[in-house]
Amino acid sequence: MYNLNRYVQLVKIRKSYFTQYGLRYSHTQVKEDLKNRNIEKVLIANRGEIACRVMRTAKKLGIQTVAVYSDADKNAMHVEMADEAYHIGPAPSTQSYLNAAKILEVALKSKSQAIHPGYGFLSENVEFCEQCAHHGVIFIGPPTSAIRDMGIKSTSKAIMSKAGVPIVKGYHGEDQSIEKLQAEANKIGFPLMIKAVRGGGGKGMRIAMTEEEFLSQLESAKRESLKSFGDESMLLEQYITDPRHVEVQVFADMYGNAVHLFERDCSVQRRHQKIIEEAPAPGLSEETRRALGEAAVRAAKAVGYVGAGTVEFILHRVTHDFHFMEMNTRLQVEHPITEMITGTDLVEWQLRVAAGEPLPVRQEEIVRRGHAFECRVYAEEPGAGFLPRAGTLHRLRQPTPEENVRIETGVREGQEVSVHYDPMIAKLVVWGQDRNQALAKTKRKLSEYQVAGLETNVNFLLRLSGASAFLAGDVHTAFIQQHERELFPEQLAIDPDRATQAALGHLIKTQLESSANDTWKGISVAPNAWRPNYQLRKTVNFKFNEKDVKVIVEYDSEPNTYRVQVDDGEWRRVEAYLKSTEQGLRLITRVEDRTSNVGLLTYDQEVHIYDESGQTVLHLPQPKYQAAAGGDETASADSACSPTPGVLERILVSKGDKVVKGQPLFVVIAMKMEYVVRSPRDGVVSELTAAAPGDAVAKGALIVALDGES
To answer: Where in this chain does the record put each Biotin carboxylation domain (predicted)?
Structure first.
């Protein structure tokens, strides 16, 4: 992990980095300092897929790993993967993964030489970095000066401007009074971007399209920033309409060497958060790519950077002019696609550079090859504004990893997606020789996902990756809004093939699970099965998109053959049987000369069909004993309910208050994001929830009721 012959070079390291880790200047002592920086055990101060990702590389290098976990994560995958694991507190991140003192205590107790912060949580926390240095623990990241300068966006803009990196017009001043911010907003003009000075990941970010909505958007951004970063300072920037979001991966060592590993395009976003990324960015000239890379390296050198970082740019869709947006002083979620096109292991580079080694390559030795995509698979409801979902993953079958296909995940079937953390289930990372090949493989792998218990964005990702504009590489930050009709098609009626498959799959599987049911004896999991000598008829009633679907199935005279009618349509002759595979049950159907092979899952009162277009879910009638017990609260014109599981942050009205349509009623925090729920109509508040601010609330929980007058 280190080379003792490099002591002469080490003496030339910037004074700030020496001072941070207490490294001495004497030539005779530098050799010992290098030896002391050898990393034999690393604590990963994170959870989920990134903790697992870091552990894999650490184990490859022979480094022992230490995990930390909250109450919610005691059975998590990263805990099982680690050589050691320590409990650090309750589920809320403020009491566990953001508890810097506790994590540092564990590092010292476990005798870890280094801490890898992953991304999010403490990864860009200056105070934590300083405390690590104070206690002689290596923080695997840049020096505190770089984190501080780049974490405060106003400071970073000034440094970038001085370094010759283009910046966007805006206000980055210290005067944070409402009057000053309003005046500066008017000076810059609308539309306007409001950003948390210490922000990242889309949190504490709002767009004010007009002067009239500026103050409400500013207040919302301040609240969210305070929750996420403990700071409500804001900066204002001119909002460039529908730009591209292009970022450059940079890496630097302690000896002043810095390189870039090309760019990534992260333009397609929801809620200002990335959802699909690709490398390299499509449609750029080699001249633009080179200019982006060189600007990013200048940015890294301007702040004395060490380690992995990402310089983010706003890029004009047509001219490809670009402006500095921010620098993330950590490993990014989307780093695997850079690894795929460069053949590198960036976590290995992090560990080696932190141990005092120089960069393993020069800029001219880094070669770009092929194209890669990353799809973030979330537990969320795209059709409801991408609201996050929390609960148990009753079924989780992911694509099989193979050469040039990575599945980065931190959960498995039966585990929970917690309301306290990001709802990411996995990252699907795919490489191809060119963009078309990589995209085709991405769509094929997305179709292999089988999830039940929570709604996911897999179907949306399939539609997105197949959208005509996306295929053409015409990506930008307003892509989802501009292509809403194609990405959210209105499906009023069920495809008869899907209804047929759901009914047959349900009936055959039910019979197999209950041999005592004489009605359907004789149906088999394989073709050419024995059959009864009499005809039978079954009617299966489903719900699809709140509409009734009726499927009538008659047993034919041939083995495993049926006559099927969907919603009074034409009768069709269908051959069908089930096949058990490592990926679960498959339903094989043949109609005339067409054979289909689809995944089948029956869960609770749902029948799931999985094929190349994604997942189709049909709902069976609820049993009478369950219906009698009642269900979740549902929203109506007389109530406002929580749109997602979360924590009730604030109630903005009191009983007896008069409210108008669109007026904010309460705020829910879920997965670190703020959701403001507004009144569905004019009225008077007649009832408030018994829940108090800080209490957990379920999806659909009634928070505010209005009187009966409309």
So the answer is: 38-485
